[in-house]
Amino acid sequence: MSRREFQLLMYFVSRLGQEISQAEIYRDVWGAEPETMGGAVRVNVSRLRHKLLLGADSCFQLSATAGHGYIFLRVREPEAVN
């Protein structure tokens, strides 16, 4: 996982359950104004989903929202490991 992907993950974890716009993510994680973001947020979110294996059987979900942002949710409790 790259440094940026880790920063993005920590940002989503700190905002668990909150809808966040792409512009807000770019401003807070990249430290730059959204006018310069291009597809940076979208590409890094895609990479993060792939690396975290956020599929149907995952305890967490990282979803795009209708307002052109993202929301990171806990969708179920993790199973106990024996």
Overall description:
The protein has one domain: Winged helix-like DNA-binding domain superfamily/Winged helix DNA-binding domain (Arc Repressor Mutant, subunit A). The N and C termini lie far apart (28 Å). With 82 residues, it is of the alpha+beta class. The model has no long low-confidence stretch (mean pLDDT 89). The chain is built from 3 helices and 3 strands, in the order H-E-H-H-E-E. It has a 3-stranded antiparallel sheet. It is globular and about 50 Å long. Helix 1 crosses helix 2 and helix 1 (3-14) packs across helix 3. 41% of the residues lie in helices and 16% in strands. The longest helix is centred in the middle third of the chain and has 13 residues, at 40-52.
Provide the descriptors you would attach to this structure in a database record.
82 residues; Arc Repressor Mutant, subunit A; 3 helices; 16% strand; globular; single chain
Please, how many helices?
3
Q: What do we call the CATH topology?
A: Arc Repressor Mutant, subunit A
| Annotated CATH architecture | Orthogonal Bundle
In the CATH scheme, the class would be Mainly Alpha
Percentage of residues in helical conformation: 40-55%
What is the rounded Rg? 13 Å
Strand content: 15-25%
Distance from first to last alpha carbon: 28 Å
Major sheet: 3 strands, antiparallel
- Widest beta sheet: strand line-up: 1-3-2
